[in-house]
């Protein structure tokens, strides 16, 4: 069993551990590479980044290793690419915590809380840059271009989300933002697995669609958990999106529903700094009462179905299906 089994963040359930076990060998190599990488960082950066790197659910490496399968020729490339997507993910979370001023991540103090903003920016930069280095060294045709294009999409989506802070974006724009900030990295993880395994173009494109839909379902679940989950399960504070002025699908849908002005009034009060905790709790209840929670859940399930439908007939198909079920059923 790879090291991840003992060190994952709160919320890693048995279903996920069973999936980890199906790629235990290559996943252990990814873990070893991540640890070695954290060890190359200077002093405090190493300890803090190492802690954050150790505590992940490894969903993106899992997607990549499962889609890559066990063809011996592609295995080393898949390990390098899987390490890189996890690094990009953690780099993006570190930078996101600087942007969001978040104090907790993966059940521990966030990088900016431990290192200050300047140290956290540099830790994220280092991780992202070493990810590109690993992908370059893997020499898989098209892999560097695909990963870098993904980071461009993620950055643009984060900029778009920032421009909307304190505002209710139209649903289509919310979907566009989560597509860039979250689904893009799942999409490229599935695609890179197909590339490492040298799958035919049709299969690679199908995997792209699988990854994108899985990522959309995953982020909508994340947004539901931010409103209705438990902080202990999530490893980060709940209702942080509302406090930060980031309004997600359950809230957007409730605000657009009949009676939605009650939501809009409370969002305005919150944005002006009034009694945040109580207002956030009221908004969550209103979003449930006005159908926003059910609406977002329905959307999430549609994306999950889209992911299942897109899946090509690979040996790891049952595991890739189980990953979709995990993404929409998880509590953390
Ligand atoms: C978390 O979203 C943030 C992301 C998924 C993407 C952040 C992307 C960037 C900062 C740009 C790319 C940068 C690099 C270095 C690759 P969230 O705030 O909804 O989730 P949270 O509640 O877990 O913070
Ligand atoms: Mg955030």
Could you explain the architecture of this structure?
The protein has 332 residues and is mainly alpha-helical. It has a single domain (12-329), classed as Farnesyl Diphosphate Synthase, CATH 1.10.600. It has 17 helices and two strands. The protein has a two-stranded antiparallel ribbon with strand order 1-2. Helix 6 (72-100) packs parallel to helix 8 (143-163) and helix 13 (249-256) packs across helix 15. The model is unreliable at 1-11 (pLDDT under 50). The structure holds farnesyl diphosphate and magnesium ion. Magnesium ion binds at residues 96, 100, 102.
Radius of gyration from the alpha-carbon trace, in angstroms: 19 Å
CATH class: Mainly Alpha
Helical percent range? over 70%
> Strand-residue fraction?
under 5%
How widely separated are the two ends? 21 Å
Bound molecules: farnesyl diphosphate, magnesium ion
Strand order of the largest sheet: 1-2
| CATH superfamily annotation | Farnesyl Diphosphate Synthase
SS-based class: mainly alpha
Number of helical elements: 17
CATH topology annotation: Farnesyl Diphosphate Synthase
Main β-sheet description: 2 strands, antiparallel
Map the helices and strands.
Layout: H1 4-7, H2 14-22, H3 24-39, H4 43-54, H5 59-68, H6 72-100, E1 104-105, E2 108-109, H7 111-138, H8 143-163, H9 171-196, H10 201-228, H11 231-234, H12 240-243, H13 249-256, H14 261-271, H15 276-289, H16 292-310, H17 317-329
Antiparallel strand pairs: 1-2
The structure holds farnesyl diphosphate and magnesium ion.
The site of farnesyl diphosphate has 16 residues, from helix 6, helix 7, helix 8 and helix 9.
